[in-house]
Amino acid sequence: MSRVRSMVVVGALSAAVVLVGCSDDGSDGASSDRGTLTFVDAPEGSTDLGLCDAYELEDVKALLGGEQSFKELAPSAIGAEGDPVTGEACGWDRTEENGDGLSLRIEVRDYGDDVDGLTEQFDDLRKVTADGEEQGDLGDEAFSAETADSTLLQVRSGAYLLTASSRSQGGLEPVGVDQLRFLAAEGLAQLP
After folding, report:
1. Rounded average pLDDT over 12-16
2. CA–CA distances in Å: residue 178 to residues 74, 156, 159, 167
3. Is 90 part of a structural domain of the chain?
C-alpha cells in the first residue's frame, strides 16, 4: 500500500473514531451513569495516618449533596518523610452547572514530640482568626469561626492539629460547625 493511501486510511479511521466518540445519544444530559470519581492508589504519604479512612464516601456525599456534581478529591500528603511536621488532607467538592459550589476539607498535621511547636501554632491560629469561638469537649482545645460562606474548626489533640473547613458560593451554604465537630471527632478517633 502506498504511503499516501496509508495516510488516508489512518485519517479516515481517526475521523470515524472521533465522530463515534462525540455522537449524540439523544439524552438531555441531565442524568449520567458515571459513578463518583475516586482514586485507587493514593499518593505516597497521603494515607499514613488514616484520616481519610474515617469518612465513608456515601456519608460525605449525603452531607454535601449534588448527585452528579459531587466529587472526591485525591488525598494529599502534607510535608515529606523526615519533615518535623507531616500529615494528610482529604477533600470533597460539589460544583453545580449554575456555578453554585460547596467544598469540605479536613486535614491533620502530626507534630510528633514537638508539643511546644503545636501549642504555639494553635495559639497563633487562634490569634489571627477573626471572631473565633471556643469549642469545648473536643480534643485538648478547639475553636471555630463562621462567615456567611465559610466555616472553620481548629482542634489540638495530643500531637495533632486537625483543621476542618467548608466554603460555599452561590445559593449553597457551608457545612455547619456542629457537623464539622462531628467530622473532627470521627477523624481524631481514626488517628494512631
Report:
1. 43
2. 25, 17, 23, 15
3. yes
Stretch 114-139: mean pLDDT: 97
CATH code of the domain containing 121? 3.40.1000
- 50-73, pLDDT tens digit by residue? 899 999 999 999 999 998 899 999
In angstroms, rounded to a whole number, what is the distance separating the alpha carbons of residues 7 and 100?
47
Q: Any idea what DSSP says for residue 49?
A: S
Tell me if 69 is assigned to some domain.
yes
- DSSP H helices, 22-158, are 57-64, 115-128
What are the tens digits of pLDDT across the range 166-179? 999 999 999 999 99
Assigned domain for 18 exists: no
pLDDT for 131: 94
Q: What is the largest CA-CA distance in the chain?
A: 80
The per-residue pLDDT of the chain, averaged, comes to 84
Q: Is 26 inside any structural domain? A: no
Domain housing 47: 36-190
Measured CA to CA in angstroms, residue 117 lies from 110, 143, 168, 192 at distances of 11, 18, 32, 20
Q: How many domains does the chain have?
A: 1
Beta carbons within 8 Å of 52's beta carbon, 6+ residues apart: 42, 46, 75, 88, 90
